[in-house]
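Example complex used in Figure S2.
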Amino acid sequence: MSSIYLQALLSGIASGAVYGLIALGLSLQFGVMKIINFAHGSFLMMAMYVSYALATQAGLHPLVTAPLTAVALFVVGYACQRWLIDAIYRKEISREPIGVLIFTTGLWIFLDYGFLALVGPDSRSVDSPWANDVLVMGDLIFTYPQLAGLLVAAVITAALVAFLRYTRTGRAIRATGQDREAAGVLGIDSARVYQLSFAIGLGVLGVAGALLLPLYPANPFVGDIFGMRAFVIVVLGGIGSVAGAFWGGIIVGVLESVGSQLIPVTYAEALIFLLFLAVMYFRPSGLFGVENE
Amino acid sequence: MMSKHTLPAGARVALIAAVAAAPLLSDNQYLLSVAVITLLYAYLALSWNILGGIAGQLSLGHAAYFGLGAYTSTWLFVHLGLSPWLGMWAGAAVAVAASVVVGLSCLQLRGAYFALATIATAMVIKTLVENADSLLGGPRGMEVTLLRDAPLYFQHTRKEFYYAVALAFVCAAWFVNRQILRSRFGYYLAALRNDQEAALALGVPTTRYKLLAAMLSAGLTALGGTFYAQFVLYISPDKVLGPNLGVVIAVVCIIGGRGTLWGPVVGALLLLPGEELARTLSGGLVGVDMMLYGLLLMLVIRWEPRGLMAIFARWRERGRPAGAGAATVRAAEGSQ
Amino acid sequence: MNKHRRLQLKAGLVGALAASALLGASLVHAADPVRIGYLIPLSGSAAASIGKDMSRATHLAVKHINESGGIKSMGGAPLELVEVDTRGDAKVAITEVERLITREKTPVLLGAFQSGVTFPATAAAEKYRTPWVVDLAAKADITERGFKYVFRPTQVPASSNADSMADFISFAGKATGKPAKTVAMVYENTDWGQDMANTLRAKFKAAGIEVVLDEGYPPNSPDLRPLVLKVKGKKPDVVTVTAYAADAVQLHKLLAQMQVGAMAYVGSAAGQIDSNFIPLVGKGIASQVFTTNGWAGYESSITTPFAKRFWDEFVATNKVDPNELSVSAYAAVWVIKDALERAGKADPEAIRDALAKTRIEGTDLTKLIGYDIVIDDKGQNPKKRYVMQQITADGEYRTIWPENLASKSYRMVWPANAPKP
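Predicted assembly (1050 residues):
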């Protein structure tokens, strides 16, 4: 019986890592621009479809589609920020960017139903044998997509954290997030920072989509649940902390996996939200958060 | 303060007259159906406006109050035979109690955090209701006993009944909004909305007023939940507690112009028939109608993030001589 | 003759010609089409892909009926579908019902596949006294409300489906000497899933089979792995999987990947009979699956030219085989046709009365669907039976139970899996 709990724990870590990766992009956007991007889930859905198209049309291995999907989403993110979001963002500046929130809500609906009109409601899965292969270690079983998800997510998070901490551009991004005016005085172009952070956020999401596809079939509304989770994880981990998003994801994954063994699965979702509320109440800056206000 | 955003008197009267006359113009039950839903959302937006607009606290989980109202009155009706006209007040009481709990724990949060907290709370309530199988029917929901024509029990086969009730609801909520906007309460709410620290420093009891706004908003929303239950005659967690509902209510108010008196109504008048129109226009093409809805949202916000009322105000400014009018507009924009 | 007069003459001639043309036309098209309001989910949820399948079958039925002369008692009037996408939303369905009845003036309605939508929408139809033929919604209460205008000829409440599942599991144990002593029940946490679970629970208890896990899951969850892990931990002999398309695919894949090792995985005539199921899970995993089916399949049912025409045309246009859902949708239209023939006019009350007296026995139609259609006083047809099928290693569905309908050329393999380590 205890092996079941161990399996649950490890499976939870594996899926949590991917959840964290999904939340990474959101954390960056939230931390730097203070915007709520409700279309995040829809972009994930888009990433999954791009990866699917590459895997089926070009016959690529699911993992190989990851960097390509990342690039595609990066470009989309850049374009989106530059030509759509920026104009609205500028009009609002301080306080809560409600306009961006509504705009991304419209974008969310537009993308979800647009894809529905385009590709139909059927779920699509990747068919490669790799997706179904398992690694057996004693009583424990892992599928290769799970392992790949964990590994890639960890590597990318580490890379992103290093990028933000040690490179010039990374520090510029962090500076802008902390205090835009001060950063401006130092000569940092906030417009470029916004475009870059949004684009990087979506690029990371692209990788997450490619990792997710072998684990979960794609349909036009698949992004909704993951998007909601991502918000919970971002706040849990702490606004402005990219590493926090990763650990937040792990926590959510483990909570979901182990929690489901103890209580009915239908309550597991509520458990995650209750944890979220508890963190908000006792430690609003999140577990690893940096006070930015 | 807010007067620059209201419609001129002539247009206002015409609007009210047109709205009231609509059911007399056509015997069309389908059109009345759409009109009723539009009025319901106008009502919900007006209720939301008290907390989300005037007090400026962006709640995206108002579906929780809507659902609590619907479930309370329906349960009381189905199991105890209590008329929903009475049950709806019980529903409002439950919602107010819930808002106090939510308020005390979440109102200290700011902006985006608060919004997310409200979504989370709504999801928790939804999950609890979904799991309450024997009490509330769980995911299968509850059916409101069909009585056909029973106005004393908030039911009728003719849509005109619901239209009249919805119109009354909207007028009441509009009136409440107007009173608040003209009162000291509204003044304090505007102050804490613009700059909470400053308001606090000036001695405004921000927490208490925020909580009051939340309670009022929640109670009114719950009444709308009962209306919906009696109109559709079937409720389920998906329909009355879903996350989308909370977002739609907020969006309708924001598109119209949150914090204004007519904004919520205007928002509903544009978006609800618009969605219906998009559905009929797109014919059999699946998904295209909602796609257009999303596009419409994006366009309105791109054009004027403060909503339609602000757009109208700008149009009016173009008609006025430069100087006096422009000054008020600039001053107003500054205070936003 | 002056110009004015000539003009008048010309106008008169044209007018006379037009009038006679119209008269001639009206004599030729004496029969207006009978319009059926058709509600089905075509978007908005996972049910949409099934909705599209069923819609195609419905359209095919209309085509066949019109090709064979329409409604003869109404002068050969053709049928016409007024199709509406419910988006899986009860609110949309109710508004559309009102529009169909009051503006489109359809005298009869058909649909809407999902119980959660059909249940409230039929209440609206009852309010307006317009008859509704339910195609596939399985919620028992739909015909338990004392309504007079709701009819369900091609579907029985979910309990019948669940009965078959439990009865088969008991039967398999007795027939092979390898009984299942424990069972894990996994079902989607909706109307339908809970209805099924309630019956299964009671039947397993009565049969002395211990239920080691009884768990509903939220449909379209991000990750069903924790649930499957829970199932594994209980080491059940048999697992029942009551799930639709995408969830069923995920569940069966996970059950195999995580090596849960049950003797059989028994499905509920939903996700497991979806045309995408075998392609998505692969033949290896599919060969461990049994499923009930409201339709016995090609071997037992395609025995007449009528049935063959349906099968051939359906496969030709849609490139997939029909299943229970498409067959039920197809049959429901023929039931409406039968009622219209007896009613003789496109009037809701007349159609309602005709539907209430429906008695279709021993015809080509009943041979296609595998059961007679006799409407009882609740508007329900109690004659439908669920058979049990096994998916073979070649990816085919073969009926193995009950014995009188079982395939003669295929022998059941029980257990479907090698025994647990």
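The interface with chain A takes residues 42-46, 48-49, 52, 189, 215-218, 220-223, 225-227, 229-230, 232-233, 245-246, 249-250, 253, 257-259, 276, 280, 282 of chain C (CB under 8 Å). The CA atoms of residues 287 and 393 of chain C lie 5 Å apart.
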